[in-house]
Amino acid sequence: MRASRFFISTLKEAPSDAEIVSHQLMMRAGMIKRLGSGIYTYMPMGLKIIRKVEAIVREEMNQSGAVELLMPLIQPAELWQETGRWDKMGAELLRIKDRHGREFAFQPTAEEVITDVVRSEIKSYRQLPLNFYHIQTKFRDERRPRFGLMRGREFTMKDAYSFDRDLAGMQASYKVMYDAYVRIFNRFGLKFRAVAADNGAIGGTGSHEFHVIASTGEDALVYCPTSDYAANMEAAEALPVNATRPAAAQALTKVATPNATKCELVAEQLKLPLAQTVKTLALTVEHERDGKLTKQYFMLLLRGDHELNEVKLGKVPGLAAHRFSTEEEILEVYGTVPGYLGPIGTKAPVTVVADRSVANMADFICGANDAGYHYTGANWGRDTAEPSLVADLRNVVEGDASPDGKGVLAIERGIEVGHVFQLGTAYSEAMKATFLDENGKPAPLQMGCYGIGVTRILGAAIEQNFDDKGIIWPAALAPFALVLCPMGMDRSEAVKAATEQLYAEALAAGIDVILDDRGHRPGQMFADWELIGVPHRVVIGDRGLKEGNLEYQGRRDSEATAVPVAEALAFIKGKLAQ
Amino acid sequence: MRASRFFISTLKEAPSDAEIVSHQLMMRAGMIKRLGSGIYTYMPMGLKIIRKVEAIVREEMNQSGAVELLMPLIQPAELWQETGRWDKMGAELLRIKDRHGREFAFQPTAEEVITDVVRSEIKSYRQLPLNFYHIQTKFRDERRPRFGLMRGREFTMKDAYSFDRDLAGMQASYKVMYDAYVRIFNRFGLKFRAVAADNGAIGGTGSHEFHVIASTGEDALVYCPTSDYAANMEAAEALPVNATRPAAAQALTKVATPNATKCELVAEQLKLPLAQTVKTLALTVEHERDGKLTKQYFMLLLRGDHELNEVKLGKVPGLAAHRFSTEEEILEVYGTVPGYLGPIGTKAPVTVVADRSVANMADFICGANDAGYHYTGANWGRDTAEPSLVADLRNVVEGDASPDGKGVLAIERGIEVGHVFQLGTAYSEAMKATFLDENGKPAPLQMGCYGIGVTRILGAAIEQNFDDKGIIWPAALAPFALVLCPMGMDRSEAVKAATEQLYAEALAAGIDVILDDRGHRPGQMFADWELIGVPHRVVIGDRGLKEGNLEYQGRRDSEATAVPVAEALAFIKGKLAQ
Fold first, then answer.
1. SUPFAM superfamilies annotated for this entry (chains A, B) (predicted)?
2. B137 touching A, CB under 8 A?
3. pTM for this one?
């Protein structure tokens, strides 16, 4: 490709709404162009990268036995109503009425449509297993689109959907996709981590997220460096800090803690470690029975330095639908104000739910249910009843014991770019997608679904690979593998001849090369290609040619290397093969 | 590809809503699956063909210097309002409101977006010419979607948009695209014709349509077999049947023609040729001036056996906005009832507009403006004034003189699959898309646009290439080049070995081969592949193998040919190269 026939458009400054580095660099490198909030045109330089992502994904899907099809963007509301998601999806689902007033959705995902396709095509277990995928545009009407391709509204995803006759088959299909994802992310050349994830709203029996590691990532990834344990923060199990509860050593003492309504302030006032304090959260669960509203109260206890994990909380029996108690409720139930609650002296009907670490604490500090006072030296069993319920309620922290018992946990940041789900029969049952099994009996299809955020990969790859000059693409994703930068090609016959020869040789060798024939000054030319992030650059200039040399510089190299003209192609091939 | 790992689903009968053969065959061959009215899932067998179409289009676009990008599907209403098309497009434009109530369109085409991209990127004539294209989903909310992929609502098109500094540049860009289209349709292996077209609502200075020739085509294509003249029916110029008007030979005679309100009935009653009759159409044009409505009346005259061309009519000065006159108006203006109007004795203020052929008639038959009577032997100049206006008003018919004077016209049917337009500055002026010319003065960009209906190609190719067994794909578009049909692969080791060897050899030779390992009976297997339309088939059976042979049959062959096993691959390669 000659740059003059391509389209290159770079900016010195990123627009002010570009908050994160990948958004800034993609805008500056002319890879995307904003059309509206969360809606981008993929400019030639950006689309070329997207096509490379798609090609790798497609090859590995085909290799795994998945079959490509293409489902429509505009999907009838009726299908979404069958699974109840027409109502559940809320404002993120872009709803459309056609000229006849019929309702449709712009697909945010395609479980309903693929299940509809399969239920009419599959009659017998003999037709299974099946795995269909498509690479398609999606739309999610985010309330606050931002971060460029990382949280846009219109974006491209690959989604695969597997159909099996039983759980074991589905889990085997899941494993095939998981392995394909590992190959895909390895081929991208990105540092990534697969972590166990909570299934969340989509339902089903298991799932993993694939994250690109980046210090700017939105998600915390928990892993054990000495084992293969890995989970996202929602799913990472927190063991109690003390495996067993120490014996009580202190007497229960009520101490004045004026204005200390948070554990940090209590620890500071008492000059005691924050890890010795217990924080209390008051929750209310409302029940309606025979038209009458009743309320149930829960007291959650966490160590003062630990954070509540909302997903884990939602799984505690009876707490799926909860809210924080109001000040009025707290006053009524606990006889005090927020900030001074504690388990000692709570009356029925409060259910005390202690985090595992709190349940194994001794001599702890907690609110005295008396405004301005806390207890020190509090102990379970002696000063108050054992907690009604002990549960994993907190986020893990670095240094926690790994749940597999094989080391301690570390945490790093990641960007979610892939997600594999064991869906089970959630969709097939709702949509009556059945097949006849070996005994001629109808059974619901066992499903899995597997997504990769194609356009999001670009943003994530940049967040992982950039410097102050611009993007540093891994080889597999670079828009061009090699750029040739002639110095004064229009003035020097020698430069022109050497450039054209190397360009022809590189093309003949199948190298994805771009020749910068725009005639720009060297400074601007180099700045453009460093910003765009092409991995390999060769400069052809009269000064070097006089000594028979070209200048090679890798995008991560701090200096250029002189390479004899005759050896240039072999040298470049060697670099590309690394 | 092994059929067991692909997805093949054929039907004996087409669904009742499939009215045309391409729709029926694509449904039966499992290439598309209906999701809603005019909305289809492209099943694996269909998508594979679409990808082949896209690949050819992409190669030729790149080869022509066009650069690929991808514009969003969801486009802000504001851009469409700038060109006025938000209002003009009517119900075909799918309008969408997002969660914040902002208005968007699902793209039916992308002139507005590309012009918006270019106006912010292009500053100087030095950056021109440019040609951007994208292959993208479109949506047109057809009132009555039908014919499968031929008139669907959601479909795929390639659209290219060229930007030039002046008219000559734009016309050069247009020529490059026109030539690329010729190469594309040649590579598809389809019989096609490029015809001059009317620019219609899109505006601009010139356009051509590319049609796939098919007897079932919706459009009439006019061409001259002895020259390169070709136009669609709207644009084909009709010369007068008589180059000059013959002298009057008959006396004007008023004859009774009871109940003969149409030329056919008059000719029948009078036993005179239909080509001697003149039919009259009464039109009204309304003008509003200073809040007062005035009406202008036009009498159109066509030869009795000719058809009115609405597009030509719309171009007659003063007739851009017209309607047929009401019975009341006819009675008031002409003093008679419809069916008996004629030019003789019409009073002012009627403007008589005669088709060129009518203007050169002598001794013609026309209404007498008296219910139940016609004139014979009517002559211009002698019996009535010359027509106020002579214009080309009719559709050409076979045998008409070609407008280039190089022969006579023929007509064939076609399906429009491509359209190239010289847009000029219609969009760039509306959207203020200017560049600085050599003198530093802002000038509007000269634009062209170039579309190919990617999914429509499939339907058109089938309408041109089918028989009673199914589809007959041209080699370039076939989902697979070759199918291997083993007879009893699970029973015979010899069949299995010969099949697997040929399959491996074909794959190694880069042939797009599918091995039908589904274990179906021969009859069903052959019927499936004839329906799907794979061009080349090899049957591997014990009977043939005993004599060292395989059986080859091309999709258009009436019989199979025995081919020695050892020569099979070379034989197939020879067939593929034809």
1. Class II aaRS ABD-related (SSF52954), Class II aaRS and biotin synthetases (SSF55681), YbaK/ProRS associated domain (SSF55826)
2. yes
3. 0.92
